[in-house]
Amino acid sequence: MNSHGRMHITMVKKMLEGGRACDKCLQAEQLLRNKGLWDKVNEVLWAVEGDANSQGMLIAANKGITLAPFFIVKNENGTERTYDSVLKFVKECFGPEQSSASTSTDTKDAAPDPMNPHRSEEMTLTESALAEISEQLQNSSPQQIVNWVLGRYGKDCTLSFSGAEDVMLIDLAKKSGHAFSVFTLDTGRLHPETYEFIERVREHYDVSIEVLWPEMVKVQDLVRNKGLFSFYEEGHAECCAIRKVEPLGRALGKYRAWLTGQRRDQSPTRNNVAIAQLDAAHRGPAGPLLKLNPLATLSQQQVWTYLREQGVPYNPLHDRGFVSIGCAPCTRAVRPGEHERAGRWWWEDVTKRECGLHVAPPGANDGAGP
Ligand code: SF4
After folding, report:
1. Over the stretch 212-263, which tens digit does the pLDDT of each residue have?
2. In this predicted structure, what is the pLDDT of residue 281?
3. How far, in Å, is the centroid of ligand 1 from the Cα of 275?
4. Mean pLDDT value of segment 291-320
5. Ligand 1 atom nearest to 243, measured from its CA
6. pLDDT at 357 over 80
7. 2 by DSSP, 3-state: which?
8. Contact indicator for 231, 223 with CB cutoff of 8 Å
9. CATH class in words for 127-352
10. Which of 1, 280, 282, 342 could form a disulfide with 338 if both were Cys (CB 3.0 to 4.6 A apart)?
């Protein structure tokens, strides 16, 4: 029972088909947070759009309620009351002083909600909202971070799948129970094992993986002018820009948030990777993307412990000494004692061993990429 008035409070929220909560539910939650009442809610159930058998849908049908969110309050004496107005719920359960909102509707003028940065198409994520998100998530586990972002963005949040860390994220995303999107970049130069691995992950998790290719004309021009291995002579930047960076930007243009598997101990260029970042290098339909790095504080060992304990599929090249795996001509196995990124673009200076997927604008607190 809730300590305030010995009530048990259930909030039923609506989950949209994209897998994120409806805006009105998020606003109601924020209103409760603003009033310091959020911790009075004992449980949250979901009415999943299109799923008449979801818990929230069944309760709504049983009670004849068509609006979300709604609240079910059970008192110690066994009486029960249902509210489909958050202000009425607050007023009757916590007193009139708590309901003194200056709103014409329950949630219309709720305080700005940094946790729901895409409340309207025009609303973009601000630096102050990002700071609040970072503060909220800084001590959260990877699973909690994934739950948080997918609970708000659903399929509007994507995962760029390539390495072991990314499959850990897919595993966490599956366990969150929320919808999400996955894509991978086929540069045309991947190992055969990697293509088989992509298929294995698709089958194992029963997820749709969108495969993106570079622009054919740009690849043809590069190869015509400089051959198939120009990166050994001139550095990898040009080839990666064509085969990876451009398709990535194209892919991210559809989303509002993305999850990456970056870790701080992967390379000198990643030791400042934040849990939450504003990705000013990529724009979705609502402006700069929210970029979350749930594994930022994990070590390589912790990731592998998770993969093994949870039976997560991994690229068979790992069993042959490969650690960080990219394109075939630019990846080699790592020798004992070498750093995990030593097998990537090994002919270049260590500070340049990034493909540009995570390069941030000057001044941004970003690391780099797979
Ligand atoms: S990793 Fe190598 S082959 Fe792959 S896109 Fe970059 S330079 Fe080209």
Report:
1. 999 999 999 999 999 999 999 999 999 999 999 999 999 999 999 999 999 9
2. 81
3. 27
4. 95
5. 5
6. no
7. strand
8. no
9. alpha beta
10. 342
pLDDT band at 11 (very low <50, low <70, confident <90, very high): very high
pLDDT one-digit tens code per residue, 79-109: 999 999 888 999 999 887 765 543 333 433 3
Amino acid in the structure at residue 308: R
Beta-bridge mates of residue 46: 13
* Nearest in space to 9 (alpha carbons), one of 54, 62, 103, 76: 76
**Global confidence as pTM:** 0.65
Sequence-ordered list of residues with C-beta below 8 angstroms from that of 107, at least 6 positions apart, any chain: 24, 27, 28, 31, 86
* pLDDT for res 34: 76
Instruction: Residue 240: name the closest of 344, 163, 363, 89 by CA.
Output: 344
Please, which residues bridge with residue 290 across strands?
Answer: 257, 278
Q: Which CATH architecture has domain 7-99?
A: 3-Layer(aba) Sandwich (3.40)
The DSSP line for 50-117 is T-TTSHHHHHHHHHT--SSSEEEEEETTS-EEEES-HHHHHHHHH-GGGG----SSSSTTPPP-TT-T
Question: Which of 120, 109, 56 shows the shortest CA–CA distance to 84?
Answer: 56
Domain ranges of the chain: 7-99, 127-352
Q: Of the residues 184, 187, 194, which should be mutated to test ligand 1's pocket, given the most ligand atoms within 8 Å of the CB? A: 187
Residue 330 C-alpha to ligand 1 middle, in angstroms? 6
What tokens appear for 39 in the block? 């911790």
Dist. CA 191 → ligand 1 center (Å): 12
Q: Which residues pair with 258 in a beta bridge?
A: 158, 291
Is 355 considered catalytic here? yes
Burial per residue of 303-317, b for 16 or more beta-carbon CB atoms within 10 angstroms, e otherwise: bbebbeeeebbbbeb
**Closest of 65, 260, 270 to residue 170, by C-alpha:** 260
Whole-number Å distance, alpha carbon 244 to ligand 1 midpoint, is 8
Which residues have any ligand 1 atom within 6 Å of their CB? 187, 189, 231, 236, 239-240, 243-244, 326-327, 329-330, 355
Q: Are 73 and 80 in contact (CB under 8 A)?
A: yes
